[in-house]
């Protein structure tokens, strides 16, 4: 039974991640005309969704303690949890800060040093956004692999009983 619960929790996590990444946020960017407004809404969605991810990760770790091969699942889930901490404490605040800075700079007349500041902030925003996408892609792959492991472990368990 813990395998079924764990599979459900991880599938829910994967499904909601795919929904947010491929439906909700792209819809916001297609709907809102102003790039910074769309960015702010996207950041808001991601920063709130990470709370749900932390809860799902914690529940999955708790459930893993009831599995026979618990460390096979707990260690990857701890890695995912660490990544969520990186989102929450580093990446999302940096994206928020650089987006705000770029928005303010665009409202000013860019000359001299302001142009250089704008370029640096823009590169920094691109870096953290790219890092977020890579980490999110890694999370999706991790979740798929964990679900497959659970599926095969459930099959083995069913064959032995």
Task: Write up what this structure looks like.
- The protein has 161 residues and is mainly alpha-helical.
- Helix content is 91%, strand content 0%.
- It has four helices and no strands.
- Helix 1 runs antiparallel to helix 2, helix 2 runs antiparallel to helix 3 and helix 3 runs antiparallel to helix 4.
- It is elongated, with a radius of gyration of 20 Å.
Structural class: mainly alpha
End-to-end Cα distance, whole Å, is 13 Å
Order of helices and strands: HHHH
In percent terms, what proportion of residues is strand?
Answer: under 5%
Poorly predicted tracts of residues: none
Largest sheet: none
Shape: elongated
| Backbone CA Rg | 20 Å
Number of strands: 0
Tally of contiguous helical segments: 4
Average pLDDT rating: 90
Name the helicity range: over 70%
Topology:
Layout: H1 2-31, H2 35-64, H3 70-107, H4 113-160
Task: Provide a short characterization of the protein structure.
The protein is an all-alpha fold. It has four helices and no strands.
Descriptors:
161 residues; mainly alpha
């Amino acid at each position: 039974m813990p395998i079924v619960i764990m599979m459900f929790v991880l599938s829910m996590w994967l499904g909601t991640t795919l929904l947010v990444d491929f439906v909700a946020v792209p819809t916001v960017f297609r709907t809102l005309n102003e790039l910074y407004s769309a960015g702010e809404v996207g950041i808001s969605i991601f920063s709130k969704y990470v709370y749900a991810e932390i809860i799902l990760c914690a529940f999955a770790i708790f459930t893993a303690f009831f599995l026979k091969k618990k460390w096979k699942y707990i260690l990857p889930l701890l890695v995912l949890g660490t990544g969520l901490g990186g989102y929450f404490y580093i990446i999302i605040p940096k994206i928020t800060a650089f987006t705000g800075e770029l928005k303010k700079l665009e409202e000013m007349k860019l000359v001299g040093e302001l142009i250089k500041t704008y370029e640096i902030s823009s590169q920094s925003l691109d870096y953290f956004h790219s890092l977020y996408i890579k980490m999110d892609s890694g999370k999706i792959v991790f979740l798929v692999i964990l679900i497959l492991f659970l599926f095969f472990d459930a099959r083995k368990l069913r064959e032995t009983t």
